[in-house]
């Protein structure tokens, strides 16, 4: 009589374990394989010797800050986390100058390669008439308000003692107030208590996955994640439409900007540098730019009162004879390669030459 073969009767815990491996283990392994392939691709295509992939790293004070000696698909940072390929030359050679430019993404210039951002194009102008060791450090960072800029400068200025500090700020002040409010922090109450310069530590780059996952970055940079999940405040995409009504300047945001700017200018001078204030330029008809550009313009009055040289980069836009949109990316505030070069010429001719002849 033929014998029948019975399947092995596994214990329940083994069945559960095997099920978990199938349901969880394989997808996790697949994701890790994709992440590994992504890092390998980025390394072989964009890798820079001695630098690691990913511009942002966790920081207790800021939430996230530019990593030292890092790179991504179009950017590099140096040993101090500035968006420069060169490290700061120390000690500074006689006859050379060190300039640091602070601001948000309109200083960082995320839409341009590292050496095409306006601070680096300004460095070319400076070197053409001074020493080749003269440098302009790009301290711009996406979504940073003036509060973050001053906080970073407190670390940079005492150590580096630059000759000149350029302030190109004001575009992210409303976004900062909105983020603080979402966290339960009232900027108005802070001002009443004598505080200013508060900033959110929960910006987009503060997320661990945003800093470390190539999959998440791909989904977000291609706009897929925003279509699926929606998006929060960001300055990396142009607003979809112009608001119906002009809300006017927010007095709380403006007061915070002005007070923090005063502290910034005092800090610059305390560390032996000369400040230059550049009014942020842009196309007011694009998105919410009419509103967002006001804070930089209002802050210019504070700078003038404190005896700081003030120049208006909107003069670059007014003087350009071609299509004004040629000067910017779609956001209307981030300079194109052409616009960045014209801005560098403008800052050099109108302000920097008088300080660094």
Largest sheet: 5 strands, parallel
Q: What is the average per-residue confidence, as pLDDT, rounded to a whole number?
A: 90
Structural class, from helix and strand content?
alpha/beta
The CATH topology of the domain at 86-200 and 243-355 is Rossmann fold
Which strand order does the major sheet show?
Answer: 6-5-7-8-9
Approximately what portion of the residues adopt beta-strand conformation? 5-15%
The rough form would be described as globular
N-to-C SSE string, H for helix and E for strand: HEEEEEHHEHEHHHHHHEHHEHH
By CATH, the superfamily of the domain at 86-200 and 243-355 comes out as: SGNH hydrolase
Which class of the domain at 86-200 and 243-355 in CATH terms? Alpha Beta
DSSP E strands, number = 9
Low-pLDDT segments: 236-241
Brief rundown of the structure:
This protein has 357 residues and is α/β, with parallel strands linked by helices.
What would you note in describing this structure?
The chain has a domain at 86-200 and 243-355: SGNH hydrolase (Rossmann fold), CATH 3.40.50. It has 14 helices and 9 strands. It has a 5-stranded parallel sheet, sandwiched between helices. Strands 1-4 form a two-stranded parallel sheet. The longest helix has 35 residues, at 12-46. It has helices at residues 12-46, 105-108, 118-129, 146-160, 173-182, 187-192, 208-212, 214-221, 224-229, 251-270, 289-292, 294-305, 314-319, 337-355, and strands at 52-53, 56-59, 63-66, 70-71, 98-103, 135-138, 164-168, 274-279, 310-312. The chain is globular, with a radius of gyration of 24 Å. It is of the alpha/beta class. Strand 2 (56-59) and strand 3 form a beta hairpin. Helix 3 (118-129) packs across helix 14 (337-355), helix 4 (146-160) packs parallel to helix 10 and helix 10 packs across helix 12.
């Amino acid at each position: 009589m033929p014998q029948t073969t019975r399947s092995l009767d596994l214990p329940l815990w083994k069945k559960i374990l095997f099920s978990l491996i199938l349901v969880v283990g394989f997808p996790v392994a697949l994701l890790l394989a994709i992440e590994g392939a992504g890092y390998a691709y980025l390394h072989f295509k964009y890798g820079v010797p001695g630098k690691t992939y990913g511009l942002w790293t966790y920081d207790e004070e800021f939430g996230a800050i530019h990593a030292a000696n890092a790179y991504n698909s179009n950017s590099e940072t140096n040993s101090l986390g500035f968006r420069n390929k060169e490290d700061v030359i120390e000690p500074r050679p006689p006859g050379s100058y060190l300039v640091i430019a602070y601001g948000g993404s309109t200083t960082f210039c995320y839409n341009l390669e590292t050496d095409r951002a306006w601070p680096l194009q300004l460095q070319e102008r400076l070197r053409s008439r001074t020493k080749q060791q003269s440098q302009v450090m790009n301290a711009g960072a996406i979504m940073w308000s003036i509060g973050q800029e001053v906080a970073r400068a407190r670390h940079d200025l005492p150590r580096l003692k630059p000759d000149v500090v350029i302030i190109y700020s004001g575009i992210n002040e409303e976004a900062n107030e909105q983020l603080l409010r979402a966290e339960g922090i009232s900027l108005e109450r802070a001002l009443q208590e004598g505080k200013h310069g508060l900033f959110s530590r929960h910006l987009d780059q503060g997320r661990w996955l945003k800093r470390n996952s190539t999959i998440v970055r791909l989904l977000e940079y291609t706009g897929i994640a925003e279509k699926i999940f929606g998006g929060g405040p960001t300055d990396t995409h142009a607003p979809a439409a112009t608001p119906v009504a002009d809300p006017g300047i927010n007095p709380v945001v403006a007061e915070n900007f002005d007070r923090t700017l005063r502290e910034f200018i005092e800090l610059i001078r305390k560390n032996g540098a000369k400040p230059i204030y550049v009014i942020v330029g842009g196309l007011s008809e694009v998105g919410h730019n009419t509103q967002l550009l006001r804070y930089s313009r209002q802050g210019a009055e504070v700078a003038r009162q404190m005896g700081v040289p003030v120049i208006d980069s909107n003069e670059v836009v007014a003087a350009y004879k071609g299509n004004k949109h040629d000067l910017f990316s779609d956001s209307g505030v981030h300079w194109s390669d052409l616009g960045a070069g014209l801005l560098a010429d403008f800052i050099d001719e109108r302000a920097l030459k008088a300080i660094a002849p």
